[in-house]
């Protein structure tokens, strides 16, 4: 069975968040299953990976976007170094950029990506069994495959859409239809939602099946989905929740080259302490105090706006008996407020930016990982922290609900239900109580490290879905 994963991100080439981690791992694990040939197609980016690896041009052609003629090149990485065939679509001016997102003309960028992929497959007569589309950036592919005559060669190819984040739907004005490959006008409703072209809604309508990255998140979409609630209820017959795994080859504390002191579950307590001491020294924190960490985008869905108040309140309430470290960026107001506290409190350390190495060190060093998310379709941070023996303190929502069980019901993490400052600080106080009981803390470290988040099980679930 031949599967093409279509995505704007893929680790280690271009990563903004968890989408990259999933697309960089899932195909690799699917390829370990007999009879499966999973490949990845992504845009070409001006990133170190493309300059450090050899590529060959496997396709060179043109597409039309309105009256513009765009050159499309498809480049294949020569050695399958990532454990799957990697194809990068290059379109000068649109798909040759430094980063996946943040450009004014991204509607054109993503349309061209989708059209470029389908044009290449048709021109080269490549007919996969499944086109697996990730998020709204590839959400129009199921429509295009079935309803654009230009791609009739692909008609009947099965399409799966995975919703990693329903907060972003890619809505655009109907004037963008002029830049679509031609389609029968009476089918416009398959792309419409409330008077806009909505790629995510179209993916739900037109795919053979769609998935969310946890069961908990799927249930929540029926109630809260930025306007698409009734659509997901109507289409629930083809909806599946499949939890993400983690790439245990990349995220292995025993072999992770980004750590100062590697460890396994036998020597975790001592080695984590050494990692923590080193990190605390670098950031001017007292290593004797419990360390709470937050890593992530400063977005309201992550509850990042609550962090400044959490910092001062938890430090004040505990009389300075804890440390907090935050790694992230994304909102100037939050960044400035946190900078101010970084200056004010010796118990607080801040690193603004995106730093893969530092994130690994923090997962390995912290005692607790905070995730006050308002929305969390799956969440990978909690799983990475658990694998690195760090106790997750998470809001009870989406994928966090499915992966972190509270210690009071036999789990090895801490839950709170409301994303508010008092509730978070209350959960942190519970954590402090646990931290002071060495025996329990050590048990939690081991229990978390031994959780099984391997991709194998979920990779099998996707294959079963393709087969069905
Ligand atoms: P999302 O994709 O919504 O941001 P996930 O929990 O699925 O959330 O994945 C986030 C990924 O991005 C994890 O691999 C996490 O370690 C990483 N990450 C987030 N922010 C940073 C940062 N500032 N520096 C390094 N890694 C980060
Ligand atoms: C999205 C979600 C996150 C999920 C990731 C990978 O970015 O916000 O919760 O873990 O996709 O599926």
TrEMBL record:
Keywords: Glycogen biosynthesis, Glycosyltransferase, Transferase. Pathway: Glycan biosynthesis; glycogen biosynthesis. It catalyses: [(1->4)-alpha-D-glucosyl](n) + ADP-alpha-D-glucose = [(1->4)-alpha-D-glucosyl](n+1) + ADP + H(+). CDD domains: GT5_Glycogen_synthase_DULL1-like (cd03791). Residues 276-432 form the Glycosyl transferase family domain. Its EC number is 2.4.1.21. The keyword Metal-binding does not apply. ADP-alpha-D-glucose binds at residue 15. InterPro entries: Glyco_trans_1 (IPR001296), GS/SS (IPR011835), Starch_synth_cat_dom (IPR013534). GO terms for biological process: glycogen biosynthetic process. Synthesizes alpha-1,4-glucan chains using ADP-glucose. PANTHER family: ALPHA AMYLASE DOMAIN-CONTAINING PROTEIN (PTHR45825:SF11), GRANULE-BOUND STARCH SYNTHASE 1, CHLOROPLASTIC/AMYLOPLASTIC (PTHR45825). HAMAP family: Glycogen_synth. Belongs to the glycosyltransferase 1 family. Bacterial/plant glycogen synthase subfamily. This is Glycogen synthase. It comes from Chryseobacterium jejuense. The gene is glgA.
């Amino acid at each position: 069975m031949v599967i093409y994963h279509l995505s704007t991100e893929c680790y280690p080439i271009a990563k903004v968040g968890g989408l990259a981690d999933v697309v960089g791992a899932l195909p690799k694990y699917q390829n370990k299953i007999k009879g499966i040939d999973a490949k990845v197609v992504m845009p070409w980016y001006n990133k170190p990976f493309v300059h450090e690896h050899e590529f060959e041009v496997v396709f060179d052609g043109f597409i039309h976007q309105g009256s513009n003629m765009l050159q499309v090149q498809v480049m294949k990485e020569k050695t399958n170094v990532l454990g799957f065939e990697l194809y990068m679509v290059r379109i000068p001016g649109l798909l040759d950029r430094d980063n996946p997102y943040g450009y004014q003309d991204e509607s054109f960028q993503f349309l061209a990506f989708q059209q470029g992929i389908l044009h290449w497959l048709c021109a080269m007569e490549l007919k996969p069994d499944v086109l697996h589309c990730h998020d709204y950036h590839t959400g129009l592919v199921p429509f295009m495959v079935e309803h654009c005559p230009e791609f009739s060669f692909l008609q009947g190819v099965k399409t799966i859409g995975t919703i990693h984040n329903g907060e972003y739907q890619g809505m655009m004005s109907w004037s963008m239809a002029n830049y679509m490959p031609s389609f029968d006008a009476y089918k416009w409703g398959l792309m419409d939602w409330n008077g806009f072209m909505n790629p995510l809604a179209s993916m739900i309508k037109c795919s053979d099946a769609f998935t969310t990255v946890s069961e908990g998140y799927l249930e929540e979409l029926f109630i809260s989905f930025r306007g698409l609630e009734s659509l997901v209820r109507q289409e629930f017959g083809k909806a599946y929740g499949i939890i993400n795994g983690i790439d245990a080859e990349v995220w292995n504390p025993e072999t992770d080259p980004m750590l100062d002191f590697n460890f396994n579950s036998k020597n975790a307590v001592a080695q984590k302490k050494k990692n923590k001491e080193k990190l605390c020294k670098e950031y001017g924190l007292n290593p004797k105090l419990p360390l709470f960490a937050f890593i992530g985008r400063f977005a309201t869905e992550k509850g990042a706006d609550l962090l400044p108040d959490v910092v001062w309140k938890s430090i004040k309430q505990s009389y300075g008996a804890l440390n907090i470290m935050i790694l992230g960026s994304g909102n100037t107001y939050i960044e400035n407020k946190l900078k101010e506290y970084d200056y004010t409190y010796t118990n607080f350390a801040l690193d603004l930016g995106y730093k893969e190495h530092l994130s690994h060190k923090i997962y390995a060093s912290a005692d607790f990982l905070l995730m006050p998310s308002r929305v969390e379709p799956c969440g990978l941070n909690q799983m990475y922290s658990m694998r690195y023996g760090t106790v997750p303190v998470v809001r009870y929502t989406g994928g966090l609900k499915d992966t972190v069980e509270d210690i009071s019901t036999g789990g090895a993490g801490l839950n709170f239900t409301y994303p508010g400052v008092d509730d978070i600080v209350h959960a942190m106080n519970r954590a402090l109580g646990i931290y002071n009981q060495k025996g329990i803390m050590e048990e939690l470290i081991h229990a978390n490290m031994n959780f099984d988040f391997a991709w194998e099980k979920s990779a099998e679930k996707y294959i079963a879905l393709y087969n069905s």
